[in-house]
Amino acid sequence: MPLRSMLYVPASNARALAKARDLPCDALILDLEDAVAPAAKEEARAALGAALAAKGRPAQLRLVRINGLDTPWGAEDLAALAGCACDGIVVPKVDGPADLDAVAARTERPLWAMIETARGVLRASDTCAHPRLSGIVMGTNDLGREIGLRPTADRFAILPALQGALLAARAHGIAAIDGVCNALGDAARLEAECAQGRDLGFDGKSLIHPAQIAAANATFAPSAEEIDLARRRIAAFEAVLAEGQGVAVVDGEIVEALHVEAARTVLDLARMVEGGEGA
Ligand SMILES: CC(C)(COP(=O)(O)OP(=O)(O)OC[C@H]1O[C@@H](n2cnc3c(N)ncnc32)[C@H](O)[C@@H]1OP(=O)(O)O)[C@@H](O)C(=O)NCCC(=O)NCCSC(=O)C[C@H](O)C(=O)O
Ligand SMILES: [Mg+2]
């Protein structure tokens, strides 16, 4: 399924929880961690259980971000989720595969790792090799704080970490979701970040507000031009192949078997988006 837009929903916010399932995002991260104050953790856990009891939309992935097992709340979060219908557990601040082992020993659900520590970035390849891992989500706020970087609109300082983690995810064939755009209400900045994440190779962007969903959905879906080009590349390659050749030229650029494979991926994603497998 497409993963263009992944919205954090604080489990302590009843209105947001109620609204979330009808929002057109591809995935939700129902959050028990940083969006929930310590005093509200228990209540949030109970509200989350009730929200998960309501049937979700099949086209919308429902993940739950627990607190770390090294906090006073993590073990209880996992225990509370035992009987709940969710599609996966997001583990925060993963430094390496041992952090996933600890969670994997307590749940059979698919795992997602937040890459948001310096160690986590440096060990991303080991983490992404974990057999229970479905994907990574970049935590650019925590990572930026730990590194001590100065956030800029072009995200210049965090790009190496984003790319390193993305390479690790791709090397192990799992999904990769970009970090959030904190600038609520700054549409231009959000669009630029979405385009940057897409160009780096991410599958989608994590989001903090419903108003950010449309930009992510549009940017991470193939455009009409990309779909047209993919079709023309496939057709041109099939024509030269029938003549016993392995290279076509479309719009002045070579097309070989690998480009055709990429073109088929574009069309598959377009079909999934069009067919409502996404929101
Ligand atoms: C930032 C917010 C606190 C703003 O909330 P609010 O003041 O309620 O905004 P609005 O009045 O504009 O909301 C309009 C309606 O939309 C609903 N809403 C708002 N946000 C969400 C949401 N995230 N999911 C679902 N629904 C949402 C409101 O309830 C309103 O509904 P209604 O009244 O019925 O019309 C708030 O947006 C928010 O809390 N956002 C999430 C913040 C969060 O999750 N932060 C933690 C994750 S980010 C992070 O840390 C990533 C990583 O770990 C890292 O390190 O980088
Ligand atoms: Mg974080």
Oligomeric form: single chain
CATH architecture of the largest domain: Alpha-Beta Barrel
Average pLDDT score: 96
Distance between the termini: 10 Å
Q: Looking at the structure, what is the overall shape?
A: globular
Structural class: alpha/beta
Report Rg.
Answer: 20 Å
Count up the helices: 12
Number of domains: 2
Structure description:
- One of its GO terms (biological process) is oxaloacetate metabolic process.
- Belongs to the HpcH/HpaI aldolase family.
- Keywords: Lyase, Magnesium, Metal-binding.
- The structure is a single chain.
- The protein has 279 residues and is of the alpha/beta class.
- It has 2 domains: 5-219, Alpha-Beta Barrel (TIM Barrel), CATH 3.20.20.60; 224-274, no CATH class.
- It has 12 helices and 10 strands.
- The strands form 2 sheets. The protein has an 8-stranded parallel beta barrel, surrounded by 5 helices.
- Helix 11 packs across helix 12 (257-274).
- It binds ligand LIB3CWND and magnesium ion (MG).
